[in-house]
Amino acid sequence: MQDQSSKPATTEDSQKMTDGFHLVIDALKLNGIDTIFGLPGIPITDLTRMAQGEGMRVISFRHEQNAGNAAAIAGFLTQKPGICLTVSAPGFLNGLTALTNATTNCFPMILISGSSEREIVDLQQGDYEEMDQLAIAKPLCKAAFRVLHAEDIGVGVARAIRAALSGRPGGVYLDLPAKLFAQSMEAEVGKKSLIKVVDPAPRQIPAPDAVKRALDLLKGAKRPLILLGKGAAYAQADADIRALVEKTGIPYLPMSMAKGLLPDTHELSASAARSYVLPEADVVLLIGARLNWLLSQGKGKTWGGKNPKDWAAKSFIQIDISPTEIDSNVAIAAPVIGDIGSCVSALLAGIGANWAKPPVEWTGAIAERKEKNIAKMAETLAKDPSPMNFHSALAVVRDIIKANPEAILVNEGANALDFTRSIVDMYQPRKRLDVGTWGIMGIGMGFAVAAAVVTGKPVIAVEGDSAFGFSGMEVETICRYKLPVCVVILNNNGVYGGTDVNRSGGADVAPTVFVKGARYDKLIEAFGGVGVNAATPAELRRAMDEAIRSGKPTLINAVIDETAGTESGRITSLNPKKK
Ligand code: ADP
Ligand code: TZD
Question: Which of 47, 335, 417, 502 sits at a 20 to 30 Å CA gap from 390?
């Protein structure tokens, strides 16, 4: 489709005039935003060209959902809202899943979409890609704004940034009708209309009595536990969080994207004794983690309730920036409301030199279980079955991450997700990026592209073969921008596995089964990347080492036993069953 958007102000007026295109770019740049993830087309094609011309990094994707996921994770990694730019209606809708997912995960992101003319949309007269985008976005994100006049672009961008970053971070929609871009105004007036947002994520200091209540509860605990969530990773209060764990001597559990806040090999990590500490702990300090389904809503057997429907058998302290999160599932005895940096430093200030570390009965019992489970896992990882299974392949990934702790690990799938999370240790904060709160497939290549672009570090994406398919075309994007991304597909021939059968006996394969022996490595070769088929751990290791060494876009098809793994990985129980 050819672009029909109006020309920018580049005539003899260019010294004195500006236009909507340039005001959007200037407003973003003024606020330190230097990267746009998007996909061009009417009416934003020129915006992408001009943004690039004005020195912004413009990363162009093959599908808006992947650009949106890239923006979301860029927001998580940088504490600046990630920008996703799309065309109207279908492009907007393609980006919307990522915007809603960002909001669900508390990642700051702004989806900017061009839209059709208001007059036509509101009368439903059938414009090109007509849709009332603002109305559709509103219930699906944290905030949504539309700008109709060029002189309001500064305010619109400022409001979007504040909404994305302040309080609980989330996704914001900014609707820019096509006409806006061509509106011109005096450059000087335009410049003055822009707003540099001061303190977009203001610190929120917890109340002293709330801090005291929390410390009193923690002091009296016999079996305390700290639970770190991805909010703690986002907050970038890494040194204080580590100091809190080490000074109190309290064992901790990281949620999957909080892995690496302290190295997984830390002596106070209770990860390898998870099923012991959750039911046994008497006081649990949640830092940036919600008691949602990932934590069994804070009640039931996981937490030591005798009857699965019991209330929590323990007392919770919860640090969160969102006051309404408190008591959302179980009673929280000591809420501490504020930003994690301020809250953790307030707790630290109240922990004197004579703080009594937890009783050795508790820490000793955890250590004992850890040791047993780690030894059991080492035994499993040492096996070398043929074909490879998840364990023997992931033992390789585990070693590669250990040798390259600065690498970012992107991870999606079912078994591919669960096994990677438990087998591959992380050593540094914000290095593990995954399916998050929704358990959504399709984040893989978008996250990988953004992680490489905003950090410059090597990226390893461990993908189930089904999971990869949702964003697989972006291997072209990875090759086009020459990103140091190594995709490892744990290929077991289908969704969860490849052994299901058609119950009718008909010719179609079962709904969960893919083409047997597919060679995903050939995909990346089409775009000049390195493709490797790895049938053994040794081949996988060689290919991964080489990918890290060369920094070349690489896709490894790791051939996994199609009988390995279970339906839905570790969440089999969530599948509905006949009563
Ligand atoms: P996980 O899935 O890792 O358990 P969640 O996404 O459920 O983590 O929880 C993250 C929590 O962190 C959210 O409740 C969010 O409000 C909170 N949060 C995010 N950023 C901050 C911050 N800077 N300060 C305090 N709380 C935060
Ligand atoms: N669609 C979306 C957007 N998200 C989802 N989570 C699903 C579908 C359902 N789903 C899962 O929850 S995991 C999964 C799907 C389709 C793929 C599992 O297969 P895989 O991984 O090949 O990626 P394993 O290792 O074979 O289990």
Answer: 502
pLDDT band at 5 (very low <50, low <70, confident <90, very high): very low
Q: Which two tokens stand for residue 476?
A: 């072209």
List the CATH code of the domain at 208-367.
Answer: 3.40.50.1220
322 Cβ below 6 A of ligand 1: yes
Atom of ligand 1 nearest to the CA of 227: 4
Any idea where the domains of the chain sit in the sequence? 14-193, 208-367, 383-574
Rounded to whole angstroms, the Cα distance separating 415 from 436 reads 15
From the CB of 226, is ligand 2 less than 6 Å away? no
Q: How confident is the model at residue 568 (pLDDT cuts 50, 70, 90)?
A: confident
Does the C-beta of 320 come closer than 6 Å to ligand 1? yes
Rounded Cα gap, residues 185 and 182, in angstroms: 10
Give the residue from 322, 369, 31 showing the smallest Cα distance to 200.
31
CATH number of 14-193: 3.40.50.970
| Of 103, 230, 336, best ligand 1 pocket probe by most atoms within 8 Å of the beta carbon | 230
* 29-68 pLDDT, tens digit each: 999 999 999 999 999 999 999 999 999 999 999 999 999 9
Q: Give the integer Cα–Cα distance in Å for 171 and 96.
A: 10
The string of pLDDT tens digits covering residues 409-425 is 999 999 999 999 999 99
Whole-model pTM? 0.96
State the closest ligand 2 atom to the C-alpha of 470, by its place in the atom list counted from 1: 3
CA of 445 to the centre of ligand 2 (A): 15
